[in-house]
Write a structure and sequence with these properties.
The structure is a single chain. The protein contains 3 helices and 4 strands. By secondary structure, it is of the alpha+beta class. It has a 4-stranded antiparallel beta sheet with strand order 1-2-3-4.
């Protein structure tokens, strides 16, 4: 009798965690779908780190940067600053970037 109850309990536990994992995967897929749609439409689903505005993708000197229309913040992804400084080596921005990399 005890083995049957243990097996039933284990089965219910496995079913519970399987359902929770499926829900988590479904939520993640939905977030990824929304992000892909936002990227394709040119809008962003990212919130501004400074305020509660929604970031918009804008092109500056051929590099896509995120800007916040609410607070005016400009946010760069990992390689965007480097791309901008390569395009503008004679400027103060290029000089500043090169001084950090020397």
């Amino acid at each position: 009798m005890g083995d049957a109850m243990d097996d039933r309990r284990k089965g219910l536990e496995e079913e519970y965690f399987h359902r929770k994992n499926k829900e988590a995967v479904d939520k993640m897929r939905e977030k990824m779908r929304i992000a892909a749609e936002a990227k394709a439409s040119g809008s962003s689903s990212l919130a501004c780190p400074r305020c509660d505005g929604t970031l918009e993708a804008n092109t500056f000197q051929g590099v896509v940067v995120d800007t916040c229309p609410k607070c005016g913040g400009v946010w760069l992804d990992a390689d965007e600053l480097e791309q901008l400084t390569k395009k503008d080596d004679g400027s103060w921005l290029g000089g500043l970037w090169n001084s950090f990399n020397d």
